[in-house]
């Protein structure tokens, strides 16, 4: 189900919903050819293992949320955008965005040029937008734009479509950045992915990568230790997971081994290509909020036996920044079920 619930047995990475990477979107700014919109969705508002709502705190102050940009096709970042958050004080939270280039972009840290500083986070249904030079920024609760039939879930080899959209009334925490196309680098297009990291309790370990992703529904192909290695890895290392993906495809789609390996190689490395000069269409070029990624996933998973789930995009999308609809449940309507994990 997209990249929601990417931890073991459809739980959250490291047991923390705030660290869960959900969806990545990138598309040209509507009506303006000189800028692009990047949306990193994290922290689903509900859990399926165990069932229940998650915390009202949208982002983890001890975490780092990062967008990686590969500009030369080596699947190693040459540009990174790093977003960190303050602790909640009087029901308020702020965000700071940094940009880093060169060798440092491939590493881990909180350094970088500050492009947005102490922007207010939308803790409820209000839209608070920060503007800084050529950048616009939003962070906070929004309606989850992901749509998929409730019958497309575990076990994935027993799909029974119901016509019910599992995410129709669900929320997610969104990080939205409007930026000039030149700020992405890569005149001939780039590869994008996003990730979450968290500080370990012991100072020797430092930052731990909790989750990462780009394409929708990748983590469902990975069991046990392979999943942990994948979530903690980098796209440049993704060739090592081809056989694991192929084994899952053989099981769910009845592919031959050679067919499964060929399809697996189209899914890896796990990056989202984007060229602002070309029309957006997932998975070949970026991802719009209305792209039906579930149909793409179903066709691959079932080897073409199921082509679509007959669901369409959510109708609460906005025509203007931050483009995502208002949240369905905020404030007191969210239950406080989250307990921070020990790292």
Structural notes for this entry:
There is one protein chain. With 343 residues, the chain is of the alpha+beta class. It has one domain. 12% of the residues lie in helices and 28% in strands. It is built from four helices and 14 strands. Strands 5, 6, 7, 8, 12, 13 and 14 form a seven-stranded antiparallel sheet that branches. The protein has a five-stranded antiparallel sheet with strand order 1-2-11-10-9, with no helix packed on it. A two-stranded antiparallel ribbon has the order 3-4. The C terminus is likely disordered.
Number of strands: 14
Order of helices and strands: EEEEEEEEEEEEEHHHEH
Instruction: Indicate how many domains the architecture comprises.
Output: 1
> Count of helices?
4
How much strand content do the residues show? 25-35%
**Mean pLDDT, as a whole number?**
90
Task: Write out key terms for the chains shown.
343 residues, alpha+beta, seven-stranded antiparallel beta sheet, five-stranded antiparallel beta sheet, 4 helices, 14 strands, 12% helix, globular, disordered C terminus
